[in-house]
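The pair is quoted verbatim underneath.

:::
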Amino acid sequence: MYREKENINPGTCVKCESDNIDYDTFEYNGDYGYYPTTCNDCGQEGKEYYNIVYDFSTARIKIK
């Protein structure tokens, strides 16, 4: 039997709270994205979610 558990501390395992986490490639999903994670201490796999919000744009403009 499984149950969902959340953690609001980025960079820590949801199960054992270790900070010994491996991250896989960031995946986009609409207005949010997540990193698949694996804890190196207990082996728990999970996802660390992030909201994607526009911040600003930049460009290198050639000066004449």
